[in-house]
Write a structure and sequence with these properties.
This protein is 29% helix and 10% strand. It has 638 residues and is α/β, with parallel strands linked by helices. The protein has two domains: 2-513 and 606-636, no CATH class; 515-538 and 552-595. The strands form two sheets. It has a seven-stranded mixed sheet, with no helix packed on it. Strand 4 (98-101) and strand 5 form a beta hairpin. The two termini are 38 Å apart.
Length: 638
């Protein structure tokens, strides 16, 4: 099985799929799965731009809206995690994971799925120290501060992932594990990104929770993005140095200084969210290649030369630098564990977990989707021969049930149970999952139950690099997503995600009145034009008027005849106006009904976000402001 790895997507789905299509055609290969490592930007409409944390010039409605609306369909099954430039209001609807469009699956804020015999884990967002111990205190509509904090990794999800006992084949995160830069060609990395030297020297480059999970889970592959550079490394797991026995507990995640000789994570000075565009002035030689390949049996390459231009979607594709080579004597130990074709009877779903883990983890970070950049890598895993369908992971479903009561919607994260207690919980829930889900035919198969919630953008996407001139509009009210409701019912747990949200397809009144959809050449009006007949005096004639002839005999009859004629004409004119007004109102009604399917664009005015500035978190908000300044400074270097 061949899988494609993409770095930062940034809404460039058309270009990514065009590159893969070109590669499949020219190399006569089939790519079975696409994995995207964050910054996906699932922007459905203008309202989602209000929840996107990025500079204004990047606030564009990309071509994802066409996939969401059903105008296009992903040609390759696509799985992604969230980064720090996302439509957070939409991804929050699918906190536990779900389809954002047909054939495009979001792994949720944390999750594990299976595809083709591969077990894939994911953690969305980036690490930020001051939010790590918090619950999800953000409220919708997100203000500017909450747009930046909602994607910060929480200890709750790291704790859940740390409970995984069965081996993982692939782990996806947006930011890098801390310290991974020392396990690859650090000198080459600094030649491309010299401004990273300070963080590398102080061992603050990357995420401490990701470092913890890397050493705990020991997956065969780990893929990341975020820093917009290709970097490969091999992390050797020294069996003589183990994490504390309390797997995933607060003691294990905090007391690493004695056990591993690592600094206390509380002493990490994170001065930047790395939310800015990290492309700073670089001393580059020849442009790097866009696509590379690697096989599980060794390093190889697919394709030579650049892609042919295919219109706006054309992207240069060339042979990339292979990943760091692993010694042959340990190559077999770092391969994925491949279950049998039946997901229920697979090795990954057996009652007795396989505690063997890879001795080496191959790490790869990739760039963002731009011409002549290393944004794609093809991985060939011939041993993975399972069905090419997404399925739930049995162990992860048990962990979800066992930790569901720890989920917090306030700043205070609930205290996690002791290690023995959580182990007993998971064992009990695993037995429940096996009895109620795994034992049923296709019980673990993820249903294709995508449904639109908010209205899709009408019209064409914004041209790449040309953001519309709109202010930072406030995001709309939350929607309840039927996929999340169905998953919670499937697991027998309560749904905490937007339980009182708008029903799918409902117009959000917070976005203002929906505009009409005028036809070509028609003028748009807020209300129908009403024609009012005015009683004006007759015009005064300048010519000499002939005196009226007085007919004393027929005068009375003439007056009655003139009055009747005038009354009939008035009634006829009034009836004509009434018919015209009825036709006009009928047309107006149809226009409004059609407009309900569109989206209100004329929503102006910046909103003060004082409601997000809480007294007990003033330092954190001040740090967010510092990040914005760093973001603007870094953007100026592009």
């Amino acid at each position: 099985m061949r899988i494609a790895i993409e770095g930062c997507c940034h809404g460039e789905l058309d270009r990514i799929y065009a590159s893969l299509k070109y590669l499949q055609r020219t190399e006569n290969i089939t790519i079975d799965l696409l994995l995207i490592c964050g910054d996906f930007q699932s922007i459905r409409n203008q309202g989602d731009l209000g929840s996107l944390a990025c500079p204004d010039r990047y606030r564009t409605i990309g071509n994802f809206s066409e996939y969401y609306a059903g105008k296009k369909k992903a040609p390759i099954p696509t799985v992604f995690i969230g980064g720090n430039h996302e439509a957070s209001n939409y991804l929050w609807e699918l906190y536990h994971g779900g389809w954002v469009a047909e054939n495009i699956y979001y792994m949720g804020f944390a999750g594990v799925v299976n595809f083709g015999g591969l077990r894939i884990g994911g953690l969305s967002g980036i690490y930020k120290k001051h939010d790590y111990d918090s619950g999800y205190y953000e409220t919708q509509p997100f203000n500017e501060s909450h747009c930046r904090s909602v994607y910060h990794v929480r200890k709750y999800n790291v704790y859940r992932l740390a409970q995984i006992k069965r081996p993982l084949d692939i782990m996806l995160t947006h930011d890098w594990p801390r310290g991974i830069a020392f396990h690859g060609n650090t000198r080459a990395l600094l030649q491309v990104k010299p401004f990273l030297a300070g963080e590398i020297n102080t061992n603050t480059l990357g995420s401490y929770p990701n470092e913890f999970l890397l050493k705990r889970l020991k997956p065969s592959y780990w893929f990341s993005a975020h820093l917009h550079v290709k970097f490969a490394a091999v992390h050797k797991h020294d069996s003589a140095v183990e994490l504390p026995h309390a797997a995933g507990s607060e003691a294990a995640m905090g007391a690493t200084a004695a056990g591993l000789g690592l600094e206390n994570p509380d002493e990490i000075a994170i001065t930047s969210d790395m939310e800015e565009d990290v492309d700073k002035p670089e001393a580059q030689a020849d442009p790097p290649a866009a696509v590379g390949t690697e096989t599980a049996e060794g390093n190889g390459s697919v394709g030579e030369g650049n892609a042919e231009a295919t219109g706006d979607a054309a992207v240069e594709v060339a042979t990339g630098t292979p990943m760091v080579e692993v010694p042959a004597e340990v190559e077999s130990t770092s391969q994925p564990t491949v279950p049998t074709a039946n997901p229920v009877e697979s090795e990954a779903n057996k009652a007795t977990p396989d505690t063997s883990k890879a001795r080496y983890t191959k790490f790869l970070a990739l760039d963002k989707c731009l011409p002549s950049r290393d944004f794609l890598q093809i991985i060939d895993i011939p041993e993975a021969t399972g069905p090419l369908e997404l399925t739930y992971d049995e162990e992860w479903l048990a962990i979800m049930r066992a930790t569901h009561d720890l989920f917090s919607l306030s700043r205070d994260q609930k205290k996690v149970p002791a290690d023995d207690e959580i182990a007993n919980r998971i064992a009990t829930e695993l037995a429940w999952v096996q009895s109620n889900i795994s034992s049923k035919p296709n019980g673990l198969l993820i249903p294709h139950n995508f449904v639109q919630t908010a209205p899709a953008h009408k019209g064409k996407p914004d041209p790449p690099g040309k953001a519309p001139k709109v202010s930072r509009v406030r995001g709309g009210n939350p929607y309840i997503n039927p996929q999340t409701v169905a998953l919670c019912e499937f697991l027998g747990v309560q749904n905490y995600i937007n339980p009182n949200g708008l029903a799918p397809g409902t117009w959000d009144p917070a976005l203002g009145p929906p505009p009409p959809s005028p036809g070509k050449g028609q003028q748009q009006h807020d209300a129908p034009i009403r024609r009012v007949k005015l009683d004006l005096p007759d015009p005064v004639s300048t010519e000499t008027e002939t005196p009226p002839v007085t007919d004393e005999t027929h005068g009375e009859a003439s007056v009655e005849h003139d009055t009747a004629t005038h009354t009939a004409a008035a009634e006829e004119e009034e009836n004509a106006e009434s018919a015209e007004r009825t036709d006009r109102d009928r047309t107006r009604t149809t226009t409004v009904e059609e407009a309900l399917l569109g989206f209100y664009v004329d929503h102006q005015g910046d909103r003060a976000h004082a409601d997000g500035q809480e007294g007990d978190h003033a330092d954190a908000d001040a740090q967010e402001g510092g990040d914005d300044g760093q973001e603007q400074a870094d953007e100026a270097h592009e």
